[in-house]
Amino acid sequence: MSVASVISVLDDDPYVRAALNNLLESRGYIVHTFASAEEFLRSTDSNDTSCVIADVQMPLTTGIDLLTQMRAQGSATPFIFITAFPDESVRARALKAGAICFLGKPFAAADLMQCLERALVAGDETIE
């Protein structure tokens, strides 16, 4: 039996966190939700995360800043970005920083699940 992947959802909107939590748990994932990058970094759950799904625009530390910080610390955790403002220059920055996907809100659940599958495969390849 395989162990369920742990997905960390970071979004300052509690409704987005709840919706993603419900979607991902219904697909068998273990989900941890956080209202900010700082809350995520303070959590011990950050070490066990198989993938981070983060809003781009959050107070204090943006999702892209978090990804950059984690990469600088040697973390290869896959990132998927979601945003209500899918600006092309921000998308380019996110992908250059190492994001697997960049989705504009609202997005289809199937699109997110496809991104998540790609992210988890990429994460497995990093571990090997």
Task: Please name the CATH topology.
Answer: Rossmann fold
Q: What is the radius of gyration?
A: 13 Å
Poorly predicted regions are none
Per DSSP, what share of the residues sits in E-state strands of 2 or more residues? 15-25%
CATH architecture group name: 3-Layer(aba) Sandwich
CATH superfamily: Response regulator
Q: How many helical stretches?
A: 5
If you average the pLDDT, what whole number results?
91
H-E string? EHEHEHEHEH
Number of strands: 5
Give the proportion of residues in helices. Answer: 40-55%
What is the overall silhouette? globular
Decide which structural class fits the backbone: alpha/beta
Q: What's the N-to-C terminus distance?
A: 19 Å
Level-1 CATH class name:
Alpha Beta
Characterize the largest beta sheet: strand count, sense, and whether it forms a barrel: 5 strands, parallel
The strand line-up of the biggest sheet is 2-1-3-4-5
Number of domains: 1
Q: What labels would you give this structure?
A:
globular; 5-stranded parallel sheet; 5 strands; 128 residues; Sig_transdc_resp-reg_receiver; phosphoprotein; 45% helix; Rossmann fold; alpha/beta; CheY-like_superfamily; Response regulator
